[in-house]
Amino acid sequence: MSKNAISIGIIIGNRDFFPDSLVEKARTEIIEVFAKLTIKPILLETTDTKLGGVETYKDSQKCADLFKKHSNELAGVLVLLPNFGDERGVADTLKLANLNVPVLIQAYPDELSKMNVVNRRDSWCGKISVCNNLYQYGIKYSLTSQHVSFPTEAVFQKDLKDFVAVCRVVKGLKNVRIGAVGARPGAFNTVRYSEKILQRNGITVTTVDLSEILGKANKLTKDDTSVKQHLEKINAYASKGKTPNEAMIQIAKLDVVLNDYVEEYALDATAIQCWTSLQQNFGCNVCTTMSIMSENMLPSACEVDVTGTLSMYAMQLASGSPSALVDWNNNYAEDPNKCVLFHCGNWAKSFLPDIEISNAPILGTSVGIENTYGALDGRTPAMPLTYGRISTDDPKGIIKAYIGEGELTDDPLKTFGNRAVAQIGNLQGLMNHVCRNGFEHHVVMNASKTGSILEEALGNYMGWELYNHKA
User: Fold this and answer.
1) Spatial contact of 178 and 201, defined as CB atoms under 8 Å apart
2) pLDDT given at position 18
3) Using one digit for the tens of pLDDT, what is the confidence trace for 437-454?
């Protein structure tokens, strides 16, 4: 089993007047499925309880003790119902373990040719009873896409993989550490957020003044080993294009210090001040460093957009692939369901097959184009799209979010920077929701179809106010 395999607890429900062979076979089947999907199972041995199932209160105590022993690694729990099961046994186990992790409820189907006393399961009915008890106990849970399904079926295995993704999102968000580098730009009230509301949800923000970062970077020289190493890394990552060597050195110095900061404070993501202090006081853009970090699954957002990078991190956890912070920027001709996504140039390389280090023409009009090298240029081709945004709503004292799915297209687009064309059903309705509910102009895109995973993780388990845009 891989060291990176996620650990999921398994409760096998049982009732004594159903055949023992059903529980015995279910245990073997689910272990094989977990091995196939590279998931680490945490479950009772067949010698701990009758066939490793959970039925009595003593069984619940044993299973809960096992889960508590592995509480640091357990990301979720699967409830397996090869027969009706004992709803109290399941509920008591979860209550005693007190893990506060996602729970998936599975139930086996009956076969028409095996409805006799020896083979009958009644799991269809038992699943309803288990869910009813968990609801009474206040324990949150997830359901499979079909009410009953065999673990060996593809439909259940997709459900299980999606559930593992939900577990990754929930576990990650409850422990995430975000670095806020510098103050938000004065003109960007849109990226204000509540650090206290985030902390109540397990999200820690660590701040550092931009002057500390720039001060350390200014002490470095082109001859320092660390600067040379980071310059090599940057050159291997993207073509320098027409970027002057002096600018490349500045970019490398900044890269050294920011990476040291991330390592020192054990950060999972960053939000960095850019517009316009970096250009005026250090003479380059930080986009290239942000792109490299995002590509390496350490998402980074510009303009100190802390909840923006939190959104990037959530989508990354859901999909297992990098995310990018973008602007809802332009209409696309007269098509009401297409728009242009844009940013100066900090998207992960996964979105930019023609990536090149360049400058930021818009920003250059105010700070001088020579001070904006480090922004990336590149067009995102057609790919799947999940988009969304997490935000703190300070007047309500809550975290809220919206998500949805669409497509990135190959429609013609002649402009600069990082750019893409998005096609989203009922885009006008979505924009109405964004504007009516005070969301930011920044949104996050991910090359996946993970809207249902995010809905379950953010809405059901994190308990955030969530809107899932349906085309």
Assistant:
1) no
2) 79
3) 999 999 999 999 999 999
Q: What tokens appear for 119 in the block?
A: 């083979």
d(CA 227, CA 216): 12
Residue 90's nearest CA partner among 62, 46, 60 is: 60
162 and 198 co-located in one domain:
no
Distance of alpha carbon 394 from alpha carbon 378, whole angstroms: 36
Please name which of 78, 81, 103, 83 lies closest in space to residue 10, comparing C-alpha atoms. Answer: 78
Q: What is the 3-state secondary structure (H, E, C) of 294-343?
A: HHCCCCEEECCCHHHHHHHHHHHHHHCCCEEEEEEEEEECCEEEEEEEEE
Q: Which residues of 142-154 are buried (b: 16+ CB within 10 A; e: fewer)?
A: bebeeebbbbeee
Same domain? 232 vs 132: no
Contacts of residue 17, defined as CB under 8 A and 6 or more positions apart, other chains included, come to none
Q: At what angle do helices 154-173 and 306-319 cross, to 10 degrees?
A: 150
Is the pLDDT at 3 greater than 80? The verdict is: no
Residue 111 contacts by C-beta under 8 Å, 6 or more apart in sequence? 119
Query: What angle, rounded to 10 degrees, do the helices at 245-264 and 287-295 form?
Result: 50
pLDDT tens digits, residue range 365-383? 999 999 999 999 999 999 9
List phi, psi (to 5°) of 310.
-60, -40
- CATH at residue 68: 3.40.50.10940
Rg value, the chain, Cα: 25
Let me know whether 203 and 348 are in one domain: yes
Residue ranges in 360-426 assigned as alpha helix (H): 361-367
Q: How far apart are CA 203 and CA 311, in angstroms?
A: 12
**Structure token pair of residue 271:** 């939000």
**Token duo for residue 361:** 């023409």
pTM over 0.85: yes
Do 343 and 437 lie in one domain? The reply is: yes
* Amino acid letter for position 360: A
Q: Mark residue 320 as left, alpha or beta (left: phi above 0; alpha: psi -120 to 50; beta: remaining).
A: left
- Examine the domain organization and report whether 323 and 392 are in the same domain: yes
Flag whether 151 is in a domain. yes
CATH code, domain carrying 280: 3.40.275.10
